Amino acid sequence: MTQIALNVPKLMTMEEYLAYDDGTDTRYELVDGELVEMPTESQGNLDIAKYLLFELAKYFPIALIAVGTEVEVTGRRAKCRLPDILVHTEESRTALAGAKRATLTRDMPPPAIVIEVVSPGQQNRDRDYRYKRTEYAARGIAEYWIIDPEIQQVTLCLWVNGQYEDTIYMGDTPLASTVIPSFKLSAAQILAFGQN
């Protein structure tokens, strides 16, 4: 009997992912042990993220605001997400001191806020609205903001007793953040930066 070698990619462990470097600047997420290349962001999404960075800097020290910090979440196999913006707690920022890679592993405290700006396409919508929502809630992240330029809304997911309770913002109603009680921006103000 002849055996045929199948070209099946090997699933990665979290440790292998943390050590992985393909020598490029390609952004990946680890999803159930598989490397998933993240698409390049649109200019509109980048403008929204940049605007939010400057706004968040009014409320937090720069050291607590992160772009490019990964968050290990639970899944069938190893899983690590790369939010567009993350706001650390003092504890989560301290946990990364001296680390070779900015990855909040499951044994580290969760950040206070993760923010995703939704890219077009059903696969991206499912990832941000379904999968990441469940994963971030299981990680105990106090707030998950889903900024959606396509339908012009912001969904603010607040962690309550182990799950998220969602409030959808459209138009000029200011977001009601529990982490940033004095935050006064509306969905319209945030999303306006993605239309320039």
Main attributes of the structure:
196 residues; 5 helices; alpha+beta; globular; disordered N terminus
Provide a quick synopsis of the model:
The protein is of the alpha+beta class.
What is the percentage of strand-forming residues?
A: 15-25%
CA radius of gyration is: 18 Å
- Secondary structure tally: strands: 11
Distance between the termini: 63 Å
Which class do the helix and strand fractions yield? alpha+beta
Low-confidence stretches: 1-8
Q: What string, H for helix and E for strand, traces the elements in order?
A: HEEHEEEEHEEHEEEH
**Fraction in helix:** 25-40%
**What is the overall number of helices?**
5
Topology:
Layout: H1 14-19, E1 28-31, E2 34-37, H2 43-56, E3 65-66, E4 70-73, E5 79-81, E6 85-87, H3 90-95, E7 103-104, E8 113-117, H4 122-138, E9 143-148, E10 153-160, E11 163-169, H5 187-192
Parallel strand pairs: 4-7, 8-9
Antiparallel strand pairs: 1-2, 3-6, 4-5, 6-8, 9-10, 10-11
Describe the structure.
The protein contains five helices and eleven strands, in the order H-E-E-H-E-E-E-E-H-E-E-H-E-E-E-H. 25% of the residues lie in helices and 24% in strands. The protein has helices at residues 14-19, 43-56, 90-95, 122-138, 187-192, and strands spanning 28-31, 34-37, 65-66, 70-73, 79-81, 85-87, 103-104, 113-117, 143-148, 153-160, 163-169.
